[in-house]
Amino acid sequence: QVQLVESGGGLVQPGGSLRLSCAASERYVSDYHVGWYRQVAGKQRELVASIPRCCSTNYADSVKGRFTISRDNAKNTVYLQMNSLKAEDTAVYYCNFVASVVPWGQGTQVTVSS
């Protein structure tokens, strides 16, 4: 069964940076459109960035210019570099395949606070 394991979250001050990692098993991330999502308690999960098999990456307006999604095919891992973090970026972050969702992992908590 496909598993996705997110890591790299933590507590960071406003303006700081974090890099999240998403390691996949049983599927090659290079073969799929992969996305990073986030969810705040009581709200719907939202897609914040995605990287297709080809073509340009995509970002939600709220993170454009601050977040960068990338992929390391050799490590079968997708990353989310988050810079200039704001309090409103606080959430649990998940990764998944955009068009063929598999069971969600545990996610990684990102807390932006002074």
Give structural notes.
It is a single chain. The protein has strands spanning 3-7, 10-12, 18-25, 34-39, 46-51, 58-59, 67-72, 77-82, 91-97, 108-112. It has 114 residues and is an all-beta fold. The strands form 2 sheets. Strands 2-10-9-4-5-6 form a 6-stranded mixed sheet, with no helix packed on it. Strands 1-3-8-7 form a 4-stranded antiparallel sheet, with no helix packed on it. Strand 7 and strand 8 form a beta hairpin. The mean pLDDT is 95.
Which labels suit this protein?
114 residues; mainly beta; four-stranded antiparallel beta sheet; 10 strands
- Parts with pLDDT < 50 across at least 5 consecutive residues: none
Q: State Rg.
A: 13 Å
**Alpha carbon gap, first and last residue:** 40 Å
Strand content bin = over 45%
Number of helices: 0
Order of helices and strands: EEEEEEEEEE
What does the main sheet amount to? Answer: 6 strands, mixed
Shape: globular
- Estimate percent helicity: under 10%
Number of strands: 10
Strand order of the largest sheet: 2-10-9-4-5-6
Summing up helix and strand content along with how strands pair, one would put the structural category as mainly beta
Mean pLDDT: 95
